């Protein structure tokens, strides 16, 4: 089966939504060769056993200091990502996800907690299915591999709880108390990370708070 079709069927069957209502404009350029990553995957599972697995062909990260970094993973293509910033483009055929892992504290043995119940990362999972948007936020623990100020970072997040915090009107959420596992090995790519950050932020802005 075509990978794009497989991705579309998986997300559509999971979230069961109809076509998108509007389009985003204001994109000033293209992506080019987006992403400098190596590998990335995630599994989301809820309390009823509903499971959604994703492989991410595009990954990139940027860092602020020795403790702070943002990792971005997506299975959207360059063209799909650009479509969100192209006026009059039809979003109704776009399906995919963007994950942001924000490391806000690099755990240090003897100085910070080193245990799964501690929190060192914030997680944002942006789901687009047939143009509808759902944004899930959560937190978890990650002990990153390598020096994040060098040229690569790796990490694993296990059982991070998620909650739907933003959604467009026709986004349907079937997940009950979902948790997310993430694994990645990603190269430093400031430009691609900044591009993915702007897309994630713009998509979240198009959705309405569930609070």
Give descriptors for this structure.
10-stranded antiparallel sheet; 3 helices; 17% helix; 38% strand; disordered N terminus
In percent, how much strand structure appears in the residues?
Answer: 35-45%
Please give the number of β-strands: 10
Structural class: alpha+beta
Bin the helical content.
10-25%
The pLDDT mean sits at: 80
Order of helices and strands: HEEEEHEEEEEHE
Number of helices: 3
What is the radius of gyration computed over CA atoms, rounded to a whole number of angstroms? 17 Å
- Give the overall shape: globular
Characterize the biggest β-sheet.
10 strands, antiparallel
Quaternary state reads single chain
Low-confidence stretches: 1-10, 16-32
Number of domains: 1
First-residue to last-residue Cα separation: 39 Å
Task: Briefly characterize the structure.
This protein is an alpha+beta fold and 211 residues long. It has 3 helices and 10 strands; from the N terminus they run H-E-E-E-E-H-E-E-E-E-E-H-E.
